[in-house]
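Notes to self, DUF433 domain-containing protein:
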Amino acid sequence: MDIDRITLDPAQMGGKPCIRGLRVTVGTVLGLMAEGVSREHILAAYPYLEPEDLDAALAYASWRLEEREEHLTAA
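result:
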């Protein structure tokens, strides 16, 4: 899984995961894809994005959904 294109910076976009340090969040890309916007249209609307960035956004979302949080309880 290639998610090294995803950056997290608390000082940028409220700490949301972004594409390569750009001010484009993973959520923005995923939202467009979920609405049925084609990859070609997304890349035309955001010419500084690359096809691999869209793949990385999907991979990151998949990884986050599979991540399991363990709640600690007092002993």
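- The radius of gyration is 14 Å.
- The longest strand covers residues 6-7.
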